[in-house]
Amino acid sequence: MENRRSNAYTKKQLLHLAISFCFIFLFGAFCPTWGGITRLGVRAIGIFIGGIWLIANRFGMVIPSFIIMFAMLLTGYTDGTTIIQTTLGSPTVWQLIIIFVLLFALTESGADSVLARWMISRKALNGHPVLFTCVFMIAVTTLGALASALGAFLFSVAMVNSIAESVGYDDKSQWKKAMTTGALIASSVGGGILPFKGMAMMIYNLLAPGLLEAGVEIDQISYLVSAIVSGLFISVSLGLCLKPLFRVDFSKMKDADVASICAHGGTSFNKRQSVTFLIFLVGIAYSVVMIWLPKSMPGYDIINGIGQGFWFVLMLILMTLIHIDSEPLLNVERAMGKAINWGIVMCVCAFTAIGGMIANEELGIRNWLSMIMNHVFGNMPFPLFIVILVAATLLCTNVFSNTATAVIIGTVVGPFLIKYATTIGINPSCLIPAIVMSALCAFLTMAAGGSAPLYLGSDCMKDDPKWVWSYGLLIFPIVTITSSLAYILCAYLL
Predict the structure, then answer these.
(1) What is the DSSP letter of 26?
(2) What is the pTM of this model?
(3) CA dihedral in degrees (430, 386, 481, 217; nearest 10)?
(4) pLDDT score, position 2
(5) Which terminus of the chain has a lower count of CB atoms within 10 Å, N or C?
(6) What is the C-alpha to C-alpha distance for residues 324 and 328, in angstroms, rounded to an integer?
(7) What is the pLDDT of residues 445-479, one digit of tens each?
(8) Are 104 and 146 in contact (CB under 8 A)?
(9) Strand partners, 323
(10) Close Cβ partners of 252 (under 8 Å, ≥ 6 residues apart)
């Protein structure tokens, strides 16, 4: 009986459920049309808002996604077969599922953690606490890219705790609070660097109709370069700002052998880790290689026809067939059960479906949104537009949730972003990370992102919530200024 009561809906949850259902099932029937939006368009808006409401209020991602797709069926806009074919049957979802398994293989081998420990255990960093901090943040960002933001954050917390215990920083120290906060941001932005991971794939699917209309394709190389530069700028700025802005005392770090502390656990790949990491690099290098391969080369059409998704499949096959010490590099069956985040997968499916409905020109929503965006941003200088985009996304992701924010910004601003970029001659692929990486910087509330509860509940943060709402807010200008500069530079140069 006690367990049953503990799992029961609270009054607040029931209220949120009622509000979301009103939007999903009633809004479209009773709300008047406006701005050239059709009745079906109003229903689409209601479904979209209701779905976002559920996700933002901690109802998970799977059930809200199912509700969104079911509600679409009730409008008569589409049928079940079409939804399945255009969502689960899309190359994006296929690629997303496979990359989950590849990343699992990398994490399970421990190669990602070894690489991070190697980066922060260089002897040259001893006696240079600011330099160490910069390299530490870069290492955490790298780990977030290769593994997961959550995994990278857990690794960084373990490292921070180990250093603090060795040199004498307690839980109340400014150093530990600032390092933990910086590590959270570094791991989060790292999660958005690779263009074929969850949040990036979600945004791509939402932008697909606008990209098709503009006659452009996502350039994964441009995305990757822009995201790497942004991640590097943010990581370094976090390291440089700890002393002047967060008022961190580095005196205890100057004489400490930090390299030896961070080296515990190993800094060299074993054979299994080396082979796994190499195969992973070959997998992500596909897009780069295809750019430089001459089309006249024998076998080019076959290689090009494989595509990124099935190239990842080939990497999985290799990991399964290659045995080291009588064990395969990857047990695919076990990995498929553990690695796939079905919440993200179903969220991509649901918002691809409702995003396509909203983007349908016949419903009038796109023209209405375009008119508003043009009125607000049409004559705005490009640099200012990027700064506002990043700042608005950062604000939203810390008020709602990172998933909800990504969907909202991707749906509302995304199509205008593509049109705006192509009009002024800017590569839109360089700007998509501005939405992805900013949305991932969620830390102010428990519901903001996957790592937020661990961050707010950590030993150094749980008893001092005022710190998060004072010093922690410095993250906003740091990320906004540094990442905006990165996106602007890449947009003009690429």
Answers:
(1) I
(2) 0.86
(3) -10
(4) 44
(5) N
(6) 6
(7) 877 777 888 888 888 888 788 898 999 899 999 99
(8) no
(9) 328
(10) 167, 168, 169, 175
